[in-house]
Structure formats: structure tokens, C-alpha cells
Amino acid sequence: xxxxxxxxxxxxxPLMRKEKNLAGEDGGGGERTNSxxxxxxxxxxxxxxxxxxxxxxxxxxxxxxxxxxxxxDLSLTLAEYSVFxxxxxxxxxxxxxxxGPIADFVxxxxxxxxxxxxxxxxxxxxxxxQGALALDIGRLATGYGMGVFSYVVPVFIAEMAPKNLRGxxxxxxxxxxxxxVSVAFIVGTVLTWRALALTGIIPCAILxxxxxxxxxxxxxLAKTGKEKEFEAALQKLRGKDADISVEAAEIQDYIExxxxxxxxxxxxxxxxxYLRSVIIGVGLMVFQQFGGINGICFYVSNIFVSAGFSSxxxxxxxxxxxxxxxxxxxxxxxxxxxxxLLLVSATGLVLGCILIGVSFFLKxxxxxxxxxxxxxxxxxxxxxxxxxxxxxxxPWVVMSEIFPINIxxxxxxxxxxxxxxxxxxxxxxxxxxxxxELLRYIYSLCCNQCIGHIVRGSRST
Length: 461
Hints:
Elements: H1 2-11, H2 40-61, H3 63-74, H4 78-127, H5 132-160, H6 163-187, H7 193-199, H8 201-210, H9 218-223, H10 227-238, H11 245-260, H12 272-290, H13 293-306, H14 311-336, H15 338-364, H16 372-391, H17 394-402, H18 408-423, H19 425-431, H20 437-449, H21 451-456
């Protein structure tokens, strides 16, 4: 009897244990590593890569605290400075268009080197500028670097990180962008505009130096047929004693599957079967940018002054709030879900726009002038807090999830291009006459109300 029971127990066990496929449908970076594996190189590589994200934020945050000083030192008109502030996004559009081909041709590390080079050259041009032309050339160059960074940094992190760390490490990209913006706001209150330009070189220098010590993306190496380099890079990332055989096989299978699929062209995105994904992905990017975020981010210092509030204190509070809420967002994004965060964020954006619009309406018509600064500051802080809670990061996450694998590259490039094209509206925002401030925020309000229609159709996959 005892023998039968033992036999029965043995029968319930499989003859060959199945290895869990931890790479998921994205084909790589699975969780399975040997217990002796050490992910310290993954963390170090991420730390080096997000220096590019920090450089991105430094570029975006530069124009707000330096507006008055630059205009006084170089005798720029309001229109000339507005061109300087907004030409950044034009450079970013060019960077977004070329980032994919560059990253595929010279690798992820090579693309980050190219981007860093443009940023360094741009910051030096701004530092030595004696007129509007040199300023604009420098700003255009840093914008190009931003556009490349916006694509290659999250791609590099996603490709080299194991699946169990990928979400948190990718979210660090957005957190470092906000940190870069916030530090530029705060440091810009105590440094001259030329000194602040030099601080933008620091993250680029750290990135360029750090790239010598981190491996290339294993998936890019596998895709380009560099077998030995691929295995060496994966082994370095997972630890010298880690078993990478299963993960390496999964990545190779993924690459082979991807190569068998037809390569999607830009026009293929508008086929009926892809139209829903394109509308959601591109639509979220449109409303993220046309909601007025860059108009506020680039010129928040001037808005505080116009409202009668301390520019230095306002930008410091703005910067700290942005970093804190973005950090919290990285923790709850997978728990709360994409749609709830977008809906809550959109509601806050609408309320923030209303408060800011009402404050300037009261100021123009000289009504309840004592309440104007409080309303404006409350509205701006509510706006940036709400943006950081959802509309800042979630559209990028949704974009990476909704496109089928064979059009993910083309779809992502289109969405990134539309995002930067939408950022150009900061120029339009700031060129409106002062007595049309209310119409500016009503415009933003209407855009934000449309977000709900896009969100209702979104589906995470």
C-alpha cells in the first residue's frame, strides 16, 4: 500500500520541469537569472543612461528662470526671446525624426554620444552668445539633443533591464527629466544665465564618461548579428556567475520573429486594423502638449511675476512639487492603472486652468486684486501637480503598450514627432497679447476636456 502511494505521488510530478518563460511577449530581459547573478551593472547602466534624461530636463527648464537676465544683458525683444524659448522644440522634432535611424545604425550608446555632443555644443554656444543668433543656434542644438534623448534613453533601459526591474527603471527616465527641470528652476534663481548654461554640460560629461564602462544594449547587438558581443554584454549585465542561456535564447527567438514580420512603413499605420491604436497613441500626445504644459514650463517665472508673486519662491515650490508627485507616480502607475490616472490628471488640469484664467481675468478688470496672486499660484501648482500625476508620463506608457510589435517602431516615432510638434505651441501661447490671458487658458481648458474622449477608447495590453 505504501509503495502504491509513493508511486502515485511520483506520477503527479512532470518528467521534465518546464522553464518559465519570463521574457514575456516582448522577448527579452526575463527575470530568470542564477541566484549568483548581481544586477548592480543594470542599476549602474540605468544611472548613466538617465543622465541623458537629466540633460533633457536641464534644456527644458533653462528658459524660465533666465528670461529677464538674458533680455536685459543682450537687449532682446520679447519676440526674440520667445523664439529662443520655443526653437528648442523645433530642434527636438528634428531629433525625434532622426533618433530611430541613428540608434539603429550606431547603437544605443552611439546615439547617446551623438545627443550629448549636440547638447554640449549648444550649451557652449549659449554661454558665449553675444546676440540672438548665437542663442538660437545653441538652443536649436540642445533641442536636437533632447529629441534624441527622448527616444534612445527609455529604449536602452527597456532593452538591457530584466523584466522584473524594467517598469521601475524605465519610470526613472521621467523622474530624472522632472528633476533636471526642477534643478534648473531652483539653481537658476541664484546663478547667472551663462553659469546656468555651463551646468547643463555636467550631465552630458558624466554620460559620455560613463558610456565607456557600461555595455551596449544586448538586443541591439543580437539584432545586428554580433553574437559574441551580445552574449558578453548580457553576461556583464546579469553577473559573471549568472546563467544567461534561457534569456539569450528568448532574445534570439524574439529577434528572429521580428525579422520575419513585414517591416511597417509610415503609411501602414493608417490601415484600418491599426487606426484605433494610432488614434489613441497620437491623440494622447496631442492633448498632452496642446494642454499648455510647455507654455507654463518655459515661462512659469514670468507668469508668477505677472500675477504679483515672488518669482524665486514660486519656481522653487513648483520644482519641488513636480519632482515629488512624479516620484509618487512611478510607484502607483502599475497599481492604479492608466485610465484612472489620466482622468484624475485631466480633471486637475481643467481646474488649474480655470483658476489661472480667473486670476488674470480679475487682474485685467481690476477686481479683487488681493486674491489674484493666490489664485494664480494655486492654479499653477494644481496644474503642474495634476500633469505630473498622469498626463506627463502615462501617454508614453500607453504608447509603448498599444502598438502591435510590427508597427511599434513606426508608431512610436510618429507619436514622438507629434508630441514635439505639439510642444511648439508654447510659442503661440506666449505671443498672445496680455489682455487675452484668459483666452489662452480657455484654449488649454478646451483641449484638456477632450482628453476624456481619447481615454475612454484606450486599452492597455
